[in-house]
Each structure stands twice: as structure tokens, then as C-alpha cells.
Amino acid sequence: METVLGIDVGTSSTKGVLTTLTGEVLASGVREHQVARPRTGHVEMDPDVWWEEFASLSRELTQAHPAAQVKAVGVSGMGPCLALVDGEYRPVRPAILYGVDTRATDEIEEWKARLGGDDALLQRCGSTLTTQAVGPKVAWVARHEPDVHARARRFFMPASWLAFHLTGEYVLDHQSASQSTPLYDIEARQWYRPWADQIAPGLELPTLKWAGEVAGQVTAEASAATGLPVGVPVTVGTIDAWSEALSVDAHNPGDLMLMYGTTLFFINTVTEPVRDVSLWGTVGALEGTRNVAGGMATSGAITGWLRELFGSPEFAVLVEEADAAGVGAHGLVMLPYFAGERTPLMDPDARGVIAGLSLRHTRGDLYRAALEATGFAVRHNIETIEEAGGSIERIVAVGGGTKSDVWAQIVTDITGRPQVIPRESIGASYGIAWLATQLVTPIPAAEWNPPVRVIEPRPENAQAYEELYELFRSLYPATAPIAHALAARQQD
């Protein structure tokens, strides 16, 4: 039987699938892990773990079906990340993760000024400098860890790190590069040397390819580590959210992919450039496509945190209690900014707020408030995307959060927008498996993973959520000065 292998490195786990060439999942596996938070605002991970977990999952999945013939391999991962390595491809420090790592705030403001401000950055790069950008994090290492910076020669993200270990090739996809602001020219589709040489001097930049192109073939050394046949082609791969969009056929003009996970991500596929300081303008995973994207700093991270505080009951129990709490969680409104916020606030010093608490509130109320907070933030991002010039005709949901009809229904009710639910919501590993399939035999994504149902808004909840949304939008500006003062006290 001919198969493909797709493996994705996420924030909380590495996941893998072995599928047929038509999308049937033969085997799946996961390796849970934790990121390191050595200081407030610092979020890191050892890149060697990415490869170790890939190799382990590859052996597990291929051994589960010994007769399966792996014909192609797909890789993806969280991003944009900064994993610096020396001339021998050894990590010089833990990888600095994407926008959840907020350490480079001083460097962001400094380099904004040096490069001509928001307008110049938006025009050249599609995005301004934010905590999501790679460039300021390179500058942070240079300033705070000069000895480390002096040893750095190249940089990787999870997908490119896996591709390198599998093939020996130093490549990066265009989509990931377009989030490496200010290193990439979004219109020329190439590295922008005048700025790259300023903010990342001494770094050799990887060869650019599109996500679905071949990075190379599995080497003998990689075969020994993974159990994969020598010579199997490996995709260049991309960032996990874009793999997720591919997995559910949400990469067409007018589509908005809504990814429920540890964080929450949005990708709207557009036909014309959308430039806004509150969002990220990028190229798509596939050649010829454009996106405007956004992302929350937390979503599932909050529900997981609450679960731990509550003594780790089953998620199903908490979801049931949240459902019973009803619209408005008996008078609670939460700001879900527990790790700062990415879009549209771009405020690393934002903090979580729970307004309306009384002694009568239960854990179910708090859990409901967290789910509703996500819904309010989704609506805020959707409105921002459309006001900036994006066009949203269809919302496709993907990720672990879709397993909960309660959560997805809450988001639909708050936004007033239907959500399409596909047959498989496995996520990025499934999407990158589809991309790997294209190296063997093209199959449309809509056939690979067709939609199976649509969650429609419930009109009876519309008025209540309209009122609560107004309170939500008022809460951040009313409490931001206090949150910022408290955030300053949290610095290690």
C-alpha cells in the first residue's frame, strides 16, 4: 500500500499521521512536550527535541503498518521561530518561539525607527515589526547574548530543521520567510538584503522554495534514525497554521481558516495585498497566493490552565459545566490576554482580566467565560480583517477545539458566522501529509478532506452576545493602564 507521512511540531506536542494517497488515516501518534518559560515573556524550546520526536513518531507510525510503502514525507511546525545554529549545525541556544515570546519589545521599537517606521515596513514586508517578527529576536540575541550571536551562522524553524535532518538541505519556504520580518520582500518574493544585512549580519539565509516543492530526499543517516526508505522525497514544508489551512481546503480566495489550538490563528486568503499594522500580510503556502493573518496569544492555553487550577478534571466534564452555565456565564466577561495579545492589539503587556466575579460563580462559569472570551476575540479579529480590506465568505474551523461542539457553537453565536467543519480536524500533520501526496499523485484538498457539517448561529443568543461583546470591547481600554503597570511588576 502506498502511503505518505506527515509530521508537525506544535507548541504543546508533535503529531504525526500515516495516510493513504486518498486521505485515509492509517495510524496517528503524538509526543507531548512543554516549552520553557525561563523568564516572563520568554518562550523557548530545544530544537533537538523536534528531530528526536520526529524520528520516534516516524518509527512508530511506519512500524504500525509494516507493509505500507512511504512515498513522500511532509513536515511542518509552529512559527515563525528562531533556532540559531553554528557552522556545524549545532544549536547555540534554545529556539526562540513565535509571537508568544515577547522579549524583543525594545528591539522592535528601535528597528522600526531605523527602517523608516510602520509605513515603510508594511510596504516592503507586508507586516510591521511585532513580537511575531524574527528580525528583532535576532537583534535581541546580539544585544543580550553577544557570545551566542557571534557563534550563530544559520537559522531554522521547526519545519526547516526537520527537512534539514531528513535531507541535508538548508531551505525555507516562502510563507515562513514572509513572517521573518524585516528580512523578506513580500512583492519581490526574495530575501531583502539591505535590511537582512543590517539586522541579521553574519547569518547565511536559507534557499527559498514553496512549501510543496521538494526539499530533498531522505539520506542514509536519516533513514537509520527514522525507519524511512532512503531516497523518499521530502516537502519543504511550512508553518503549522498554513498546513492546517491546506488540510481543510481553506486556501481559496474568501476563505478564513480558524485554527483552534494552544493559541488561535486566522488565515484569510485574499487576491490583493492587505496591509494593516494590526495584522500580518504574508504570501501563502502555495505559489501565487496571498494571505492576511492574525493570531491570539492564548486560547486553549487558558482552558488548559484553568483545568489545572481546578484539579485536572476531564475536559468533557468542564465543557458540560460550561454549557450548563449558559450565555454570559452568569455575568462574567473575560479578557483572554494572559500572555499579552498578538492581533489586533499587538500588546505584549496586555493581561488577563475577569470582570464580574462574585462568590456565587462556579468553575463552570469561569470555563464558560474563557470559551466566550475566545469568541469575542475571534469577532474582534474578523472585524479588523474586514475593515483592513480582507474578504471573508466562508469560515472553516480546524484543530482540537472543533472536537467541542460547545466551544465552536459559542464562537459561531458570538460572531454570527457559520463554521464549516471538515471530515478530519487532525490539523497540521494531516495538511502537510496532503501536500506530500501532491509529490506522488495530485488530489484536490476538497476530495482529500471534504466538509461534513456546518455550525449555524443560534438567533436566540444574538442580542445577549451583542451586549456582552460591547462590554468586552470596552474592558480592554478601561483596564489597559492597570494591566500594563502590573505587567511591569511581573518582569523577572
Would you mind describing this structure in some detail?
It is a single chain. The protein has 492 residues and is of the alpha+beta class. The chain has two domains: 2-241, Nucleotidyltransferase, domain 5, CATH 3.30.420; 252-423 and 458-492, 2-Layer Sandwich (Nucleotidyltransferase, domain 5), CATH 3.30.420.40. Helix content is 39%, strand content 22%. The strands form nine sheets. It has a five-stranded mixed sheet with strand order 3-2-1-5-15, with helices on both faces. The chain has a five-stranded mixed sheet with strand order 18-19-17-16-22, sandwiched between helices. Strand 18 (280-283) and strand 19 (290-296) form a beta hairpin. Helix 1 packs across helix 6 and helix 13 packs across helix 14 (405-415). The protein is globular. The chain starts with a strand and ends with a helix. The mean pLDDT is 96.
Biggest sheet features = 5 strands, mixed
Classify the fold: give the CATH topology of the largest domain: Nucleotidyltransferase, domain 5
What is the average per-residue confidence, as pLDDT, rounded to a whole number?
A: 96
Output the structural class: alpha+beta
Integer count of domains: 2
Number of helices: 17
CATH superfamily of the largest domain: ATPase, nucleotide binding domain
Architecture of the largest domain, according to CATH? Answer: 2-Layer Sandwich
